[in-house]
Amino acid sequence: MNAAAMPSPDALYIGVSTKMYMGYARSLAWLEQLVAEVDARPALAAGRVVPFVIPSFPVLPAAAALVADSPLALGAQNCGWSDGPWTGEVAPSMLAELGVGLVEIGHAERRRHFAEDDAVVALKVGAAVGSGLTPLLCVGETEACAPEAAAEIVFHQIKAAVSGDWAVAARLVIAYEPVWAIGAPEPASAEYVSQVVGALREALAQHALAGLPVIYGGSAKPGLLPRLTGVSGLFLGRFAHDAANFGRVLDEALSFCTADALKTSSKGQ
Fold first, then answer.
1. Its family (predicted)?
2. Are 108 and 177 spatial neighbours (Cβ–Cβ below 8 Å)?
């Protein structure tokens, strides 16, 4: 996904963030392994499964060179809301210059530890879209609740992030991460996640956005994706810091797409 790419409602997105678990040298060594896992799967070139990686800011220039000839898309873990007098921030326009196509915005850690509220998230989303980036908008309820209630919370988070402009929402990839499941020994159940995403899509359908990519994050591991319904992929954490594990999930996604294509083909005959 380059800086000008639009999210595809038909693709599965499989991604991983390093957060701050790796140093510079280890990050580059891991990225080389990740690129090897991706390049070992030529079927990814078709674009039905979109792999992405989100390393730390200092790694981005070298990472851009490493993934240049690979289907692996490059993301950033955060961005500022503009260029100018913002010491310590990184402008989305600079990220675009570096070859970043995706930027994570609104993660629960940013909200909790850095006091980012809906207004800040909306500023960042607007700036990212204005710079040609695809916001990976992180949303999710803080406590387990009924799927319909969780979907309503998430819907209002999306609405706030785009300031009610649903044309902007069409530029997003949604990372549904129930906060109570992040870092948990087990993810939220597949049934719960599927029900939340299904109810969310019903709400988004009122704005012609039922096909918006919605991926799941929260202790996600192999074996989960085939059990989900209506979910557009997985956002992986430390589990995928072993590059071979990332490859295992890519295989599941590719198998899922192949099975889906065969079903569609048989229906058309």
1. Belongs to the triosephosphate isomerase family.
2. yes
Q: With pLDDT > 90 as the criterion, what percentage of the chain qualifies?
A: 83
> 89 catalytic, yes or no?
no
SS3 19: coil
Residue 177: active-site member:
yes
pLDDT at 5 over 90: no
Nearest one of 91, 96, 95, 12 to 47, comparing CA atoms: 12
Q: Structure tokens of 199?
A: 């109810």
Residue 207's identity, in one-letter code, is H
pLDDT exceeds 90 at position 3: no
Q: At 210, phi and psi to the nearest 5? A: -60, -25
Structure tokens at 57: 């800011």
Find the catalytic residue in 37, 177, 241, 252: 177
Question: Where does 21-83 show beta strands of DSSP type E?
Answer: 49-54, 73-76
Which pLDDT value is given to residue 265?
Answer: 38
**Pair 44, 71: CB distance under 8 Å:** yes
Residue recorded with tokens 């879209």: 129
> Which is higher by pLDDT, 193 or 222?
193
